[in-house]
């Protein structure tokens, strides 16, 4: 389903993110997770994407398999890095042929094994250029072309310390043709509310969905901060994690924290919630239960 139709149908969207498995056994395990999360009737799911060639293929294969073997709408991530114009054209043509209707267009980072990679060799230097290109491409599945999402940063983009300039860049992505914004993970809702207000002041009117990732371990909390380029960890969260005797307790605390985030976001009319699942289902299912609903239809009334 085209993302515009999803937002038209769902007052509040609920979505999950997966990353492509590296082995056959991991692929089997992931599809077991997807089958469990499918029961929650999400609005859509997304699949992450790396700049390396094999990762690109795994992303494409997983997205197509989700589309063909489940009743879920799959959105593929696509990044600017390590791509010529010909490669970008080929990737989008392949998605169009496979019936993939939606893309999450990202700037992206070079692979760690290409630390000295020259970005000047890429067809697109910035995400707004990629958005404009994707918008220009036809999609045989829908005359509107691809549905397009872009990333937002409630705590600030790590590469843009100037928050005013950051909003200008985000506005460029939306004006280039983005249909919605999906935020990076955050642990303090006030950051999201402020971000949403600043988007409104900047004239950004597309839906903004909030990225949520439950903490599952003390080591995982550190990884989250690293992966999200220095995500702010509230003092209250740190105190809670420090009180936990083991990682099982941390996971229980993390689910509680994320539940309260979601409850407050829903009460403040969030347009959507996007769960970073880490290819697991337990935490997301528990959050749904804590919120008192069986599946996403309970939020759409």
- List the secondary-structure elements in sequence, H or E: HEHEHEHEHEHEHEHHHEH
Helix content: 40-55%
Query: What's the average pLDDT?
Result: 90
Would you identify the CATH architecture? Alpha-Beta Barrel
> What's the number of structural domains?
1
Return the structural class: alpha/beta
What is the C-alpha radius of gyration, as a whole number of Å? 18 Å
* Span between termini: 20 Å
For the record, the CATH class is Alpha Beta
Percent range for β-strand residues:
5-15%
Secondary structure tally, helices? 11
Strand order of the largest sheet: 1-2-3-4-5-6-7-8
Number of beta strands: 8
Low-confidence stretches: none
Word description of this protein:
- The chain is an alpha/beta fold.
- The two termini are 20 Å apart.
- Helix 5 packs parallel to helix 6 (163-175) and helix 10 packs across helix 11.
- Helix 6 (163-175) links the parallel strand 5 (147-152) and strand 6.
- The chain is globular, with a radius of gyration of 18 Å.
- The chain is built from eleven helices and eight strands.
- The longest helix has 21 residues, at 247-267.
- The protein has one domain: TIM Barrel, CATH 3.20.20.220.
- The protein has an eight-stranded parallel barrel, surrounded by five helices.
Relevant terms:
TIM Barrel, about 300 residues, 11 helices, alpha/beta
List the helices and strands and how they pair.
Layout: H1 3-9, E1 13-18, H2 24-38, E2 44-47, H3 53-69, E3 74-79, H4 85-98, E4 102-106, H5 127-136, E5 147-152, H6 163-175, E6 180-185, H7 189-201, E7 208-212, H8 218-227, H9 235-243, H10 247-267, E8 272-276, H11 282-290
Parallel strand pairs: 1-2, 1-8, 2-3, 3-4, 4-5, 5-6, 6-7, 7-8
